[in-house]
Amino acid sequence: MNVPFFLARRYLFSKKSKNAINYISGVSVVLVAVVSMSLVVAMSVFNGLSDLVTSLFNSFDPHIQITHHSGRVFDKNAVIPTLQTQDNVAAFSAILEDDALFSYSDKQLVGRLKGVDNQFADVVYIDTLLNAGDFVLYEDEVDFVSMGYGIAHELGAGLAYTEILQIFAPKRSKTSSSINPMDDFTKVLCYPRSIFSVQMDIDSRYVIASLSLAQRLFSYDSTQVSSIAIRCADEGSIDATAESLQRSLGSDFMVKTQEEQHEFLYKITQSEKLITFLIISLILVIASFSIVGALTMLIIDKKHDITILTSMGASKTLIRRIFVFEGWLISITGAGIGIFIGAALSLAQQHFGLLATGGGFAVEAYPVRLAVIDIVYVLAMVLSVGFLAAYLPVYSIIKKHTTNELS
């Protein structure tokens, strides 16, 4: 039998001679439980928000993107043969994008023109992102575009074909000596055919056109592109496929997964989660002072028991372990209750959406995702802080009592 643990458990759940000790111990358990619950809920909320943000971006981004290391355009034929040897590459699309000036009716706006080939819809499921219209970029010798909701709203563009959308881009070789500044720009004409909505930053910047239109506008050859987007057949092997492509293509090209395409966003999300975890953990440290008070009063209350144990040959180490276990049991009890409640609340929100966001949001309920690893982190933090909160005061108090009063 583990004597220190047995006595600690008896002391925790038995009635003390001073009711204040029972109250302080109970308050300590409640405080640890509340902080543990807050940690679990906070981590789950950040998981949900991270999933939401990344899913919004990922719905518009391919599994893998290939660009030239210089940031300039490249010949797609230098890459396509390598893609055709990869078993996990289900589809790929050549893309050419750059900044352009959009003019519709009497309004103008600078945005990003994304020229895509016919395979783009097989790589990015753009049809699922459409708010209106259909995704057709060329039909009956007429060019069409799909506009982000934000940029369409700013330009006042509709799908009635009553106005022509004009797109301007600076000529790459300025040989004109005309005094008319518009002679230094290339212009193409097209009609809005559909409107898509992904995320505000994307909706307010992007217009999707055919690859041939973009190549005409930016004065590039039919084989020149700025990136190649790839959809993988097995999403579990995206990282492995990206590594294989990087080895095959060499250092001239950059191969990025969805996470690497928005590396800064991922880092910010994880940093915010870590900071929140540390702030709540600081609250846990402050709450643990109640454990120090409870143990101090308990040691004073059990002076007679300590005297008896000492006379029976118990060492200071054994006596310390009794009260350290006592403090740790307070932390474990509080952590168990708090983690259970926090996990239950998180799972309820995750599966049933108890708290709704209201209208105008991307989701109907606040996003939450409970992760087992977060529970492990919370439990480790609570037990670590609980052990220190118990060991440090117990060491000094037992030394004082056994030396001055019990010897």
How would you concisely characterize the structure shown here?
The protein has helices at residues 3-13, 19-58, 80-83, 120-123, 149-155, 200-203, 211-217, 238-249, 258-261, 263-287, 289-301, 303-311, 316-352, 372-404, and strands spanning 64-68, 74-75, 89-104, 107-116, 130-133, 138-139, 142-148, 165-170, 185-196, 206-210, 224-225, 227-232, 253-257. By secondary structure, the chain is α+β, with helices and mostly antiparallel strands.
Overall description:
This protein has 2 domains: 3-57 and 266-404, no CATH class; 64-260, no CATH class. It has 407 residues and is of the alpha+beta class. It is 52% helix and 20% strand. The strands form 2 sheets. It has a 6-stranded mixed barrel. Helix 1 packs across helix 13 and helix 2 (19-58) packs across helix 13 (316-352). Strand 6 (138-139) and strand 7 form a beta hairpin. The protein has helices spanning 3-13, 19-58, 80-83, 120-123, 149-155, 200-203, 211-217, 238-249, 258-261, 263-287, 289-301, 303-311, 316-352, 372-404; strands spanning 64-68, 74-75, 89-104, 107-116, 130-133, 138-139, 142-148, 165-170, 185-196, 206-210, 224-225, 227-232, 253-257.
How do the helices and strands line up, and which of them pair or pack?
Layout lengths: L2 H11 L5 H40 L5 E5 L5 E2 L4 H4 L5 E16 L2 E10 L3 H4 L6 E4 L4 E2 L2 E7 H7 L9 E6 L14 E12 L3 H4 L2 E5 H7 L6 E2 L1 E6 L5 H12 L3 E5 H4 L1 H25 L1 H13 L1 H9 L4 H37 L19 H33 L3
Parallel strand pairs: 4-10, 7-9
Antiparallel strand pairs: 1-12, 1-13, 2-11, 3-4, 3-8, 3-12, 5-9, 6-7, 7-10, 8-9
